[in-house]
Specification:
single chain; alpha+beta; Nuclear Transport Factor 2, Chain: A; 6-stranded mixed sheet; 59% strand; globular
């Protein structure tokens, strides 16, 4: 997201990815790409990200990543200073790993 490469982000997501953020849920990569992926990319490019902790585990053809990061900076004229939590669930499709679930919270 930080690099602003929408094509690369889309390629990492399974078509039926489930993305949960705040009070919203997006139920496909297409829905995410057409709604707020570009806003997420702009936000992530505008803030400094400091990794606080990151854990991953591979369980056969399923893997997960759980991280906490400090996000600081300025976005749309407002200061940003939050702890962001991210959970990713990935599945090995045989043709590579795809993200099937994302959960972001602050």
């Amino acid at each position: 997201l930080r690099a602003g490469d929408a094509k690369a982000v889309r390629a990492m997501l399974a078509d039926d990815v489930l993305i949960v953020e705040g009070n919203g849920v997006e139920r496909s990569a297409e829905e995410y790409a057409s709604h707020h992926m570009l806003a997420d990319m702009k936000f992530m490019a505008a803030v400094k990200v400091e990794a606080l902790e990151h854990q991953t585990k591979v369980l056969g053809k399923v893997a997960y990543s759980v991280s906490r990061s400090q996000l600081t900076g300025d976005y749309k004229g407002k200061p940003v200073d939050v702890i962001s939590k991210e959970t990713l669930v990935l599945v090995d499709t045989g043709a590579g790993w795809k993200i099937v679930h994302v959960h972001w919270s602050h």
